[in-house]
Every structure is written in structure tokens, then in C-alpha cells.
Amino acid sequence: MTGDELARRLDEGSVTLLDVRTPGEFSGEAGYPCDPRQGHIEGAVNLPLEVLHYDVEAALEGIDTTKPFVAYCHSGQRSETAAALLRSAGHDAVNYEGSWHDWSRRAEA
Fold this sequence. Notes:
By secondary structure, the chain is an alpha/beta fold.
């Protein structure tokens, strides 16, 4: 999924967005100096990959599972793993390949 497609789907409210980075990366307290800003995509739920990896269904408790999932991380590697874990558990899930590295450069974001 591209950044433009993600922006459109978020505007439509047609996906559940999962940020699979650490809580520090999600909050903006930690991150990578290559990104122009730190934080997360508005509307994202922080679900660190380590938590998701342990037990998918337990990790999703309290999260809207009625819409397809879009997972993102910093550069798309952790989120590809998360999307695969979600799909293996029977959920519709894709990876936002550009992830935060791409989104943090978007002027409108």
C-alpha cells in the first residue's frame, strides 16, 4: 500500500491502522534521526510487533477487527511481519511499505 492510498483509506475510515513499533517510537520519544519528525500517524493503534507475535488474537482484544488492517513500522520490515502474522490468523491485512520513514515526510500529514 502506498502513502496516497493509505491517506485515502484513512479519510474514508475503511481500515484499522496498526503501528507495530515500540511505544517510544509511537509516542515520538524515540525514533530515527533520518526522519524529519517523530510520532505516529493520526488514528493509529500502537501494537508492538513483539506483542502481536506472541498471541495475535489476544493482542487484538479491544481493537476494531471488522475492517482490513494496515500495518506500519519505521521502514516496512516489522510491519510486513505483522501483516503476515495477521493474515495467518485469518485477518485481512497489508503492509504500508513506506511506513513512518515515508509518512514523516508528507507535507499534509
